[in-house]
Amino acid sequence: MAEIVRAGIAIVAQLLIDELNNLHAIKKRRPRRMWIREWIKRRNEFGASATFLREVALEDPETFRNHLRLTTNQFEELLSMVEHLIKKQDTLMRAAVEPRIKLQITLRYLATGDSFSTLEHMYRIPKSTISKFLPEVLKAIYEGLKDFIKFPSTEDEWLKIAEDLDKTTNFPNLLGAVDGKHVRIIPPRGSGSYFFNYKGEHSLVLMAVVNSNYEFIMIDFGVNGRISNGGVIEYTKFYDKLKNGTLCLPPPRSLKNTNHSFPFIFVGDEAFTLRPDFLKPFNQRELDHDKKIFNYRLSRARCRVENTFGIMSARFRIFHTAIGINLKAIERVVLACCVLHNFLRRKYASLYTPDNYCFDRENIDTGTTELGLQCNMNNLQRSYNRHSNNTAKEVRQLFMDYFNQNGAVSWQERMIR
């Protein structure tokens, strides 16, 4: 009986082997896919880098600048800073994409938010290749330019910022204007409402401190948009150091024609918590004449950070879209745009933001404010449940009295009518 069973198993096994051999014999071999599409092979002859950009660099520099947001000289300077970080070796199979083309595609992506498919057709680089090198180039831009965002580390550096802000905003002892903005994203699959903000969009928050020259002196990015009130700032290293007293801020000092000591402070909008070192406006429901004056003077100072966000989002219009790449790459997009903004603002301000550029401007004769570039990134939600201590209220009262007396400016009455 056992021999019959073994014989049966052997017959079945042989039948299965024969069937597999037959299938293998008749299976058609799939045609080998091409290594690279023919029209992509011709990028060195017909791609945007070889044709359009080369032509406009010689014949129409303004179009070149509009295309990449950099002039030819600025582009070459930036390329020299990052080339060694993004250059790859050629292989026996194919030549590596040139650093120049990588940087051009990355800058175009930041300038427009174009899809990878659009960039593929324009530059004749496969979108799969673009998706691989884009984060590397963004990281290289930040690494090459990160020194253009320098957070003060000494009292003298803070005093220089305060001096410049006093000259431009008439707000003494001011160390920076603070604000946060929602950067729209396409949320990762399965994230649910984790990034869902109060505007009904998915976002991550960019928090920044800005100086008198519309430059970022501190940026922090990555808090999910669901935390959509002033609590976002509490997740930053800046705020930790502010609370712990480790920012090396200058000691309080008296102002001109006063006998009081005024602390050095930061300013923000209603979304933040009032602190002795961080002032925000009075609630609209409790305004009288003196409080209106204070709110106006604080608004003049806070306008610095609003304009900075507006400039950056106008120049790098990827902020006008919902960014649809992975979260780590989105962070690199934002950091790269911030350092590029500072680089251009500090070294090429006359080209990046000309004198006739649309900043928010005050008409002190008519008492009106002319709004300039509007930031496409959403404000933080107002905070209603963050209580302030008495010391913070006393500091705000001290500045309010100063602005209504010894520190008054001639046009402020017209601006609150």
TrEMBL record:
Location(s) in or outside the cell: Nucleus
GO terms of molecular function: hydrolase activity; metal ion binding; nuclease activity
Coiled coil: none
Domain DDE Tnp4: 178-342
Cofactor: a divalent metal cation
Keyword line: Hydrolase, Metal-binding, Nuclease, Nucleus
Principal cellular location given in the protein's record: nucleus
Gene Ontology cellular-component annotations: nucleus
InterPro entries reported in the protein's UniProt record: HARBI1-like, HARBI1_dom
Family under the similarity heading: Belongs to the HARBI1 family.
Protein name: DDE Tnp4 domain-containing protein
